[in-house]
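@here heads up, posting the sequence + SMILES for the flavin mononucleotide run so it's all in one place. Ping me if the SMILES looks off, I pulled it from an old spreadsheet.
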Amino acid sequence: MSILSERLRALSGFPSELPVLDLAAAPAEPMGLFLAWLEEEIARGSRQPHAMTFQTLAEDGGPEGRTLILKDVDEHGLHVATSRSSRKGRQLARDPRAAMTFFWREAGRQVRIAGRTHPLSRAISEADWLARPTSDGRPNPDWQVYALQPDRVEFLQATQDRRHHELHYRLIDGSWAREA
Ligand SMILES: Cc1cc2nc3c(=O)[nH]c(=O)nc-3n(C[C@H](O)[C@H](O)[C@H](O)COP(=O)(O)O)c2cc1C
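bot reply: prediction finished. Complex structure tokens:
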């Protein structure tokens, strides 16, 4: 074992107090639980609880991830915004499949969400661009809001004994199926 490996192993892990995921009380659909966890994280005051790893597929089929900010959640799905001409923008134009991974370390929680993205309207994209703190009031036609419509959502609640609790949902023929 290298010295780095020993140091990494000795780093602190989950906090001593962790929420409990009651699998018996799991809702029939996942998005309410996702929003409840997000609200808890916002209330905790942790930094950037709306940041997640956003994965796309590169031209060679390989995965590519980067950090993005969740902009909204509505009937279209989970919104992110970026430049259409960026690498991820071009990748989404080629293959709309994408995945999000949220990690809320103070709660020992992870949520994985996968599905297909579609670009939202010019009006929504422009409103998002103009609402940015750095906006100079000029529109940016390259800016695009995408909605990811989930077909797979997986919750993980860490436990001290590392037998983490997982709750998986899959969209089958338009209905959510739960797989605990
Ligand atoms: C905390 C954080 C939040 C970010 N949020 C966004 C975002 O919402 N939209 C965006 O286009 N890039 C955002 N970025 C930058 C991206 O991670 C990425 O570097 C950039 O968009 C280029 O990605 P690409 O080459 O895969 O297209 C963020 C970076 C960090 C560290």
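MO: The chain has a mean pLDDT of 96.
MO: One more: The chain has one domain: 25-174.
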